[in-house]
Amino acid sequence: MTLLKLILNLTTLCKGRWYRNGALWAAENGILNGYGNNIFGSGDTMTREQFIAALWRYAGSPESNSNIINYTYSKTAKL
Questions:
Q1: Does 73 map to a domain?
Q2: Is residue 42 part of a domain?
Q3: CA geometry: angle at 74 spanning 44 and 55, to 5°?
């Protein structure tokens, strides 16, 4: 999806919504890109993976300097 189409879709989908300005800013800055095929999913629940990807893009898409494969998750976390 081109940036222009994404922003036009967001402008329509988010009209009157409290998150409109934030969604437009995130699209304009490459933080949120939608699903493709002119679908943004503004009413969808954000998954854990989508949230982490958005945070990673917001941080400037930094290279990893650690080995996540060896990460030990909390035994009490509900993953």
A1: no
A2: yes
A3: 40
